[in-house]
Give the backbone structure.
Amino acid sequence: MAGLALVYGLRLLPADELESFDDATVRLKSGQTASVTMHTIEGANEEEIRKQLNLSLDAFFDFYPEI
């Protein structure tokens, strides 16, 4: 298997200010494109957000047990 790249972006914003957001597009050297699904995590404080983010990352890697 080739080396892997995890593509991600993070931005912390006030939850009540969010209206909408779109998936991001990645362009590959082959000319193909791939979508990066955007997600939100809300919490009352940093600890809650970090806990949810770690659970989300663990679940992401569960999708790819061959890694």
In short: The chain has one domain: 15-62. The mean pLDDT is 89. The longest strand covers residues 24-27. The helical segments are 46-62.
